[in-house]
Amino acid sequence: MTRIPELIVFDLDYTLWPFWVDTHVTPPFKKDPKTGNISDRHGQNIKPYPEVPKMLKHLHDNNYTLAVASRTGEIEGANSLLQLLDWDKYFKYKEIYPGDKTRHFSRFQKDSGLPYEDMLFFDDENRNIVSVSALGVTCILVQNGMSMAELEKGLKRFVNKHK
Ligand SMILES: [Mg+2]
Question: What does this protein do (predicted)?
Fold first, then answer.
């Protein structure tokens, strides 16, 4: 029987969006009610990686449970962006605060009751891949942000690991 991940976890900076929310953009963020465009305090336009909205909707429509794990210190800004992007509906769990990501995953484990082996994780930083892999989570190092191709790669890796 093919096993699929019971929980798919995404990093934020350089995984779902192409910037560090604590450095490259400046809160508060706002959304133009007419155009839906999101901008920061200086009017800089804010966009996720192009395929990410489609990818999240695809996973949500296929009943995957999704989560966010970020080490950013800009907790309020990150949460505000998730809300403005209208992504809160996709993420059942959110752990956003500095520190080793094993801490974030320990919370996912407790809150979901799922074993680490049932989780799939995407992140652009090798230090997070190393520490979270050690828990038994299937981890994918993302090179140029999330895309449908990157997602497929991760899902395949998960299936092959659990054969
Ligand atoms: Mg990152």
Answer: Magnesium-dependent phosphatase which may act as a tyrosine phosphatase.
* pTM of the full structure: 0.97
Number of domains in the chain: 1
Average pLDDT over residues 109-128: 98
Residue-range definition of the domain harbouring residue 119 = 7-17+48-162
Q: Using alpha carbons only, what angle is made at residue 18 by residues 90 and 34, rounded to the nearest 5 degrees?
A: 65
How many angstroms does the Cα of residue 55 sit away from the middle of ligand 1?
18
151 inside domain? yes
Q: What angle do CA 16, 18, 21 make, to 5 degrees?
A: 90
Asked whether 69 and 121 are in contact (CB, 8 A), the reply is: yes
Any idea which residues carry the catalytic annotation? 11, 13
Ligand 1 centroid to Cα of residue 18, in Å, is 9
The pLDDT value recorded for residue 1 is 63
- What does the DSSP 8-state code read for residue 99? S
CA dist 56 and 42 (Å) reads 28
- 70 has pLDDT over 90: yes
CA of 30 to the centre of ligand 1 (A): 22
24-49 mean pLDDT: 96
